[in-house]
Structure formats: structure tokens, C-alpha cells
Design brief:
The chain is α/β, with parallel strands linked by helices. It folds into 2 domains: 199 residues, Bira Bifunctional Protein, Domain 2 (BirA Bifunctional Protein, domain 2, 2-Layer Sandwich); 99 residues, Rossmann fold, CATH 3.40.50. 43% of the residues lie in helices and 14% in strands. The chain contains 13 helices and 10 strands. Helix 2 packs antiparallel against helix 7. The two termini are 54 Å apart.
Length: 318
Amino acid sequence: MGSPSLVGEAELLAAASDVMAALGFADFTIRLNHRRALTSLLECAGIPEPLHADALVALDKLDKIGPDGVRKELAARGIDAEATLACLGFFSGLTNVDPRSGALERLREFVKRHRHGPTAVAELDEIIALTDGTAAHGRIRIDPSLARGLAYYTGAIMEIVVPQLAGSLGGGGRYDNLIGMFLGKDVPACGFSLGLERIIVVMTEREMFPAAVAGSGVDVLVTIWSSDTRGDALALAGEMRKAGLRVDVYPDADRVGKQVKYASARGVHFVAILGDDERERGEVAIKDLRTGEQTTVPRADLGEFLRSRTRNDVRPTR
């Protein structure tokens, strides 16, 4: 298979940057490396291929346990002193060089005699050039220690990070051989995924959500009156969702007071109570947790009743 055009990588970086900017992130950075550049680096340092995974586990702790700690761990993993010295020598002071060109030039010089090194570094160079006119411009930091899934990545690898967060908000790269494992033929491929849960956690902690969605994100909580009525509660939730409402169902048949307290703690404004009497009359009791008022509404009219009360409802940021 020939070399990739790298347009796919540039598009992924640009799209991910557009999404992060649209969400309101102003301080994100894209860590960029290349699988073959990383392999070249380790081999040029004298670390044999069977020990690459062990070496990366140790190097990943460089900022936590320091060079001496990594040196001891590399030795414990069977990597000889000369290879350890060469590897640590490469990473020494790397955080103090220019994150774009400085790290790339150091990597270029270190792997220039490797069979795959120069090509891999050239691809990194080209990816950066291709993203200069996109939202990824100025966001990319060459990070030779970035590894991700060495088992299947074949080219560029990337992660999005923000300060004060251990781990990434998304990542991906090129994996030309992965799809071919299932199809029996080579299929060039690269992809990127965003960590939705992590993004939501960070946005919540930073209070980045607009006031209209900063509350619970749920319009009404459906209570469960008894074990025998769980199916009816789920059916009611489905009816309200079809009416365009955001609905959650309490997971157990518990005391109604406890279920109401749970809804209040989550910032939900309405609680739907489907007791024995309400079911017999074809009605639903609705409790407004903001006012304490409770109203009985015909089940057939419930969607419109609640929509009229949530349509212009803006939840304050808590």
C-alpha cells in the first residue's frame, strides 16, 4: 500500500477542532505523533521490538516519577542501561522546546537513519502544513511520547487534551490494516472519536453549558408507584417523550416522597405520579417542584400540559 494522502488526518483534526471550539473550549491542545516514528525512536535508542510496549508504559510515567524513576522501571522491564540512557536522552528537556517545530526537529534528527523514521516525520510535517488554514492551526503539539493503541494504528495518532485533566477528551489516528483484517483486503482508514462523557464532565465542572441546558436536562421524572406498575410507568414515559419532553423514570418502586426528593436534588421541575386512583380515572398527578403545587391532568392531555409549562422554561446555572 502506498503512502496516505494525509488529507484525512488533516480533516479529522480540523473537524475535531471545530467541534471543541463550538462547545466553548478555548484551551485545548492536540497531541500528535506517528506510530512508525515512535517505533523508529525506540529502535534507534536500542530497545528491541518485543520490549516496546514495556518501554512505553515506563516512559508514560516520565512526568510523574521523573527520569530516575523511569530509569529504574526500564531496567526492571529488561531494557539495558545503554538503551535506557539513549531513550531518556531523547526525552530530556523535551517539554522546554518549541511544541511544534522543536520537538519535530529533534525527532527528525534522532530517527533520520531508520528505515521508516524520515518518512514518518515527513508525514507529521505535512499534516501540520495541511492544517494551517483550518481550525486546528496553532493547536497541534508534536508529542513523541504519545502511543495510543500500538496494536492497530499504522500512521499518525492524535489526542485532544485540556489543562488540569488526566487523560484526553478524544483521539484517533490511521489504522490501514484494521478493516482489512475482516474484509481480507487492504482498506485505508483513519478515524477520530470524542469522549462524550468526559466532555460533559469538564463542561459541567467549568460551567460552560448555556443557562437553558445547565440544569438537570430532564423536564419530568416519572415515579414508580409499585412493582406491578413499572410497565405502565415506562409506557407513560414513552408517551411523554413522543410529545417532545425530556423524561426520566425512577429506577425502583420506592416511597413517593423519596422519589420526589431525588427529582428535586437533580433539579427536575415536574414529577409525574401514577397512583392507583389516577390509573383508574385515566389521569396523572403532576407535582411542580418549584411551587409545590400538585395538579391532576387527564393522561391524554399530559404532553400538551407539560409542554406549555416547559416551552419557555430557562433553568438557572447551579
